[in-house]
Design goal:
CATH topology: Nuclear Transport Factor 2, Chain: A
Order of helices and strands: HEHHEEHHEEEE
Largest sheet: 7 strands, mixed
CATH class: Alpha Beta
Strand order of the largest sheet: 1-4-5-6-7-2-3
Helix content: 25-40%
Number of helices: 5
Structural class: alpha/beta
Shape: globular
Amino acid sequence: MLKTINVLALALLMASANAHEQNPAPQAGQFSGLESEAAKVVQAFHQALTTGNAEQAKTLLADDVVIYEGGGIERSAAEYAAHHMQADMKYLAAVHSQPLEHHVQVNQDSAYSLSVSHVTGQYKDKEVDYKGMETMVLVKTDAGWKIKHIHWSN
């Protein structure tokens, strides 16, 4: 538990520091650890949400995942699937997300993923143009890597 808290604290610290980055263009060195198995789970989760594959997305989440989004909190994969997942999939299908930075660090049976993206497009007749930030904490289980925590903000 303490290891997970330390990983989360480090991830949040790095996300906070990266959030102050003023240059929106991707640069060399702003992507690391993406070849890891944990990173592949993060990428598969993004792909599942973008393509509307709710079952695939749910299988990549730990049953007791905690998701912070838009001032709300969901405390399980089942709760997320029953509430915000469908809205998130519709939103992601309508906008374009350009990765600006993405780092994944694996530490034995835990990992964190920090990313920043430039999100543009139109959703529900409103123009969308912002920098989105995502922090994920993953744990290695007998069934492979699972997403244990997500924090989305913009």
